[in-house]
Design brief:
Strand content of chain C: 25-35%
Distance between the termini of chain C: 32 Å
Structural class of chain C: alpha/beta
Bound molecules: adenosine-5'-triphosphate, magnesium ion
Number of helices of chain B: 12
Strand order of the largest sheet of chain C: 5-6-7-3-8-9
Chains: A mainly alpha (about 250), B alpha/beta (about 290), C alpha/beta (about 230)
Strand order of the largest sheet of chain B: 7-6-8-5-9
Number of helices of chain C: 8
Order of helices and strands of chain C: EEEHEEHHHEHEHEEHH
Strand content of chain B: 15-25%
Largest sheet of chain C: 6 strands, mixed
CATH topology of one domain in chain C: Rossmann fold
Structural class of chain B: alpha/beta
CATH architecture of one domain in chain C: 3-Layer(aba) Sandwich
Oligomer: heteropentamer
Order of helices and strands of chain B: EHHEHEHEEEHEHEHEEHHHHH
Chain lengths: ~250, ~290, ~230, ~250, ~230
């Protein structure tokens, strides 16, 4: 039932799309009809390009986003642990946060070469900040009464962090990770602009340049649906694992 | 009513610059009571999209590859005038101390934008030396990225255009070959089939303004180059070089047809285009040299 | 033995602890009574080292102190067992027996798996008492620990506290509003008013002076209605 | 003192940059020396281009991000208010969140033309999701005991929202807005790729195409520093306004 | 008049309210006593309509009810005045006099501007009482409202409650652990045990039967030690 409802809108959009396409009001070049896209998808799948692209992109995103999360947590810990570090890092982090990664590609190539490192760097730059800021703000928001409790229990730094600070930040961290994941997935395009020869982003860019809108649509929809799927899986996993301790992160 | 036209300055489209800066198109269109709106939308695919959506009436400058691909994809874009055949503006550039001839490219890393005239030039150059694209390690990236990769020593050669070539040369890189003799990159002014149908008088006005700009340029060459330099933000010397490289033209001629054919077969061979198009049909009669 | 000398603590303009001097811990159980808002909890937090004071000296050979706060302060994301385990130093952390024993002491055997949101007010308060006991403190600071308990449970826990103090050379500072309770379990009784200790009674031969109750009422009465204004400067 | 510390790192980076540049190891076209960039900045400023670009981009970002915030709040409210709406919208929102806005330019051009609407749409797509997800998760996390209190006080929906749900979500919302602002600022490049004739993003793209790396650096640094400045101002404003009610959002 | 018929409420496996039948509100003040964890707060929440029951009927001509929860439940981001203003319906919202008057009733005049984190435990509890009074309820449900107050303040507030009930035809259901308090202010006393009302005493001529105290102790005693097991199924 739940699932059914969440499929209503996609189906409605599909129908609307079909209607527009068959009405002929819109250039089929800009918006190819669903069946055209479906045919394109089938032929991309048959040629093995689609599955290969998916695999390449998935592994790229998992690597990049994994590093992103680790870095973001480490940074949040550092910044949370010391006021001086926070002040020292505030300016570089704010600058990096504001500068478009795409504008930095020449510099990134200079530093990281044209291999996969640059691609990972772009994914990291695109996705690290939601994770970092949400984690930092979550860690910062320890309840003062819990802080006092920890001192009266003479908890060591580690146990204080493990049992009080971290759990208090869990809901924020989850939000951050979900937001960040979206961006890392989106960053595929930017990352695969540079020296990639496969991947969903590459597929989209390449098809766009060759003006094959049907393949572009296949790429877009594949990116969208895989992302949606992963997001839903993540959500359900969390609910299963955490709902007893954090009833507020899942709806009843 | 308004005429929407895109404003594309690079690589060094002097007629465009003069046409806009001198308000030539505006005064031509004013005779028909039509306003002119300029849009800075420069990439070939985006101009093709905007023509298809009806947001753009005239694509100021497009390369013929984009025109061919758009048509192959079912987007009827039509050529209304020539702009230039800048064979020297596109080049294969070898890294400092790296390859200096096409033969030396064998097994080397070459980076550049795929599916463009630069790509085609590379293939043609290799073929001329009895090699194929598989004899080099071709890496896909945009021109600024390829330039950065060349300068930081990540690749052996880059496919560059215009200013990037000059900058690379200043840094010690050497031009292996330009497109001259290999391909003829052609820049054209284009419109959509719908506009060509509905407003032939607009097309004529655009061509008139385009011609007026060319006339002014030939009469005031120094001033024109200076204007171009200012608009492009390059030095006068560089602007002069760009001018020389550009090989401006106002019309296409019969020699362009086989060039377009060659370009199309290149794209068909490399799976950049899926089906051939009728080249005669995408060139408006006004675009051809009256001989 | 902890000695507080001329302690003063302000919150903003308000002087909450006002040049207070007292010696604690020379008696096994000291009860602290005083009107609501007079500064008892603040004093306890200063003794426990959880709050700094603006001036004055705290002369404590810092022993192991445990605090029972006025509210239970259980961590909502930990179940009862985990909340209690926090009080165990790492070495004994793996010992489930301690925890069971402490829960037994507060008559809550068998609720290890519950989360704080599933406890009643009195149960949560008792869990927080158990947590303090698990710290095996030398000095136990308790802020109205039995306030949410019914008469019978309360008297059982009072008995437990008395026997604990007797057995384990534990010292206890105990804030309460219940004079009967104070009389029953304390050896000394301090009356606090407007940030100062205004009176102190000592139990002799198991008995407080019989005028005490009336005296205390007088002190408390004095504060009513103007306890907010008294300590403003 | 505080301020001084946060300037240490930028200065260190500047010195390092100067060192690298004057060592001659790196092509000055890839990394122009600080003085070159400074000269370029002065001439861009003198010609009025820089200030014009800044103004254009600021107004574009403020418009786009303003709409983004309003939409995000509205969506969060909708989704928070009704489980059905949440399920209906979940799939389209997740899809939109995962799809790179740059891949959607053909569709955006189709829907919004090549005017400023498309530019705003790109900024909105780039920045709406952090605000939306953080707001939604913040609103969702009402303390159950506060919920019970509201029912026993018989608060109307509006007052319940105004006094209980919304304040509870404030820290999350602030994090979301800060994250989102970074992305809207970054999106300038993507937005000004399409039919812009001024703005910092345009300046960067244009200079990149013309191989004027010094101007590119001016653009990048201007974007970074203005963003940093605005972020700092926002932070201080919040601290001033909210620290009494929400002591946890500012460090002591 | 509210009548509860055969109310049952489970939390998981545990039956917390067990086929309970009682009629409330036929006396001005009903006191409810019972061991910690026996289900008093749960019953109150069911009466107030804050918790559904698994079976049974609640026959209430729903009057205006106000609840004083076992914890103060003040909103941390609102100062005292704003916390109290929440209880005013929109019409009177602009009246600062009400709020001052209510704060006076609980002896906290002048703390409008403080935030909950700046209040002592007893002060916070009194603010929550003031909030309930501001709702001008017909039925006042109070869960150990005076537990955190010193003897004097407590008796002042007891007097206030008594006179309020007398003046304003207010009915009150009052959970307490203090039998003296229950005897003093209630007209009827219910004893709860393991989710059931096991005894009920009515005041006649201002007096409860003199055996009551012993009876209650017996009931409460019965539950000790096995109050966890009793209600499991
Ligand atoms: N963090 C704080 N900021 C400002 N004022 C505070 C703070 N903590 C306590 N106070 C004030 O200090 C005074 C004493 O508070 P304290 O909690 O010590 O009282 P108490 O004696 O424990 O009262 P109770 O019996 O009601 O718990 C109160 O007037 C309170 O308003
Ligand atoms: N949300 C809940 N989930 C699970 N169990 C609950 C929940 N709320 C209450 N209980 C259980 O219900 C029983 C009765 O709780 P209740 O709060 O009504 O007790 P009480 O009589 O008010 O006790 P106290 O005097 O200690 O406040 C307890 O055993 C408690 O563990
Ligand atoms: Mg206190
Ligand atoms: Mg209770």
């Amino acid at each position: 039932m739940q699932r059914a409802k969440s499929l209503v809108m996609p189906l409605a959009i599909l129908m609307y799309w079909q209607l527009i396409a068959s009405s002929g009001l819109v250039s089929s070049y800009l918006l190819p009809a669903p069946e055209t896209v479906w045919t394109a998808a089938k032929s991309l799948y048959a040629s093995g390009i689609l599955s290969h692209s998916i695999l390449v992109s998935l592994s790229r995103v998992f690597q990049g986003f994994g590093i992103s999360c680790v870095l973001a947590f480490a940074l949040a810990l550092l910044v949370n642990g010391s006021r001086t570090v926070e002040q020292l890092l505030s300016a570089p982090l704010a600058l990096l946060r504001m500068i478009p990664p795409l504008a930095m590609t020449p510099l990134l190539i200079l530093w990281f070469g044209i291999g996969s490192t640059t691609q990972l760097a772009i994914i990291i730059l695109a996705s690290i900040f939601p994770v970092f800021l949400n984690t930092r703000d979550g860690l910062r928001r320890v309840d003062p009464s819990h802080q006092e409790l920890a001192r009266s229990l003479q908890l060591g730094r580690l146990r204080y962090f493990r049992w009080i600070v971290l759990p208090g930040a869990v809901p924020s961290i989850i939000t951050g990770v979900r937001v960040g994941f979206g961006y890392s997935w989106r960053a595929l395009i930017g990352a695969e602009l540079i020296a990639a020869s496969a991947g969903l982003g590459y597929l989209i860019i390449d098809s766009q340049e060759m003006m094959r809108t049907d393949d572009v649509m296949v790429g877009i929809l594949t990116i969208g649906m895989i992302g949606w799927l992963l997001d839903t899986l993540f959500d359900q996993l969390l609910c299963r694992k955490l709902s007893r301790r954090f009833p507020e992160i899942c709806r009843s | 009513e308004t005429l929407d036209i895109s404003y594309v300055r690079s690589p060094f489209n002097l007629q465009m610059i003069v046409m806009k800066e001198h308000g030539l198109l505006e005064s031509e269109m004013a005779k028909q009571n039509v306003d002119v709106k300029w849009h800075e939308i420069t990439s070939g695919s985006q101009q093709a999209q905007a023509l298809a959506s009806g947001d753009l009436d005239i694509a100021g400058v497009m390369n013929t590859a984009s025109v061919l691909m758009a048509n192959a994809a079912g987007n009827p874009v039509q050529i209304l005038a020539g702009v230039s055949r800048p064979t020297d503006t596109f080049a294969i550039v070898g890294a400092k101390g790296g390859p200096s001839t096409v033969a030396e490219l064998k097994g080397k890393k070459v980076a550049g934008p795929k599916g463009t005239v630069l790509h085609q030039t590379l293939v043609a150059a290799l073929v001329k030396e009895g090699m194929t694209i598989n004899d080099v390690e071709f890496i896909q990236m945009g021109i600024p990225q390829a330039f950065a990769a060349l300068q930081s020593g990540q690749i052996d050669a880059a496919l560059l255009a215009a200013g990037a070539i000059m900058n690379a040369q200043r840094e010690g890189a050497q031009t292996i070959t330009t497109a001259t003799g290999l391909t003829v990159p052609t820049l054209v002014m284009a419109t959509s089939e719908g506009v060509a149908h509905k407003h032939p008088e607009w097309i004529d006005a655009v061509i008139r303004a385009h011609d007026m700009a060319a006339r002014w340029i030939s009469e005031n060459k120094e001033q024109a180059i200076e204007l171009g330099a200012r608009q492009q933000g390059v030095s006068l010397a560089d602007a002069n070089t760009l001018y020389d490289w550009a090989h401006f033209t106002q019309r296409l001629d019969q020699s362009d047809i086989p060039n377009l054919q060659a370009e199309m077969s290149f794209m068909l061979d490399n799976d950049l285009m899926r089906k051939p198009v009728n080249i005669e049909a995408i060139i408006l009669p006004q675009a051809m040299q009256a001989n | 033995m902890t000695i507080l000398k001329n302690i003063t603590r302000r919150f903003g303009d308000q002087v909450v602890i006002n040049d207070l001097t007292v010696e604690l811990g020379s008696h096994p159980v000291t009860a602290l009574v005083g009107a609501s808002g007079c500064g008892k909890s603040t004093l306890l937090r200063i003794v426990a080292g959880l709050l700094t004071c603006d001036s004055g000296v705290i002369d404590a050979n810092h022993k192991n102190m445990a605090v029972v706060f006025q509210e239970p302060r259980l961590l909502p994301w930990l179940d009862v067992r985990e909340n209690l385990a926090l009080a165990l130093s790492r070495a004994h952390n793996s010992d489930p027996q301690c925890i069971q024993h402490a829960l037994g002491q507060v008559h809550l055997a068998g609720i290890e798996q519950k989360f704080p949101r599933e406890l009643s007010g009195g149960m949560a308060q008792r869990v927080s008492i158990a947590r303090a006991l698990l710290q095996k403190p030398d000095i136990l600071l308790m802020d109205e620990p039995f306030a949410a308990l019914d008469a019978i449970t309360r008297s059982e826990l009072q008995q437990m506290l008395i026997s604990l103090v007797a057995q384990e050379s534990l010292q206890c500072l105990f804030v309460t509003h219940d004079l009967n309770e104070a009389e029953l379990i304390s050896n000394r009784l301090l009356v606090m008013h407007a940030g100062k200790i205004v009176a102190s009674f000592v139990k002799r031969d198991g008995q407080y002076p019989c005028s005490m109750s009336a005296d205390i009422h007088q002190y408390l009465n004095q504060s009513l209605g103007h306890n907010e204004n008294l300590s403003h400067h």
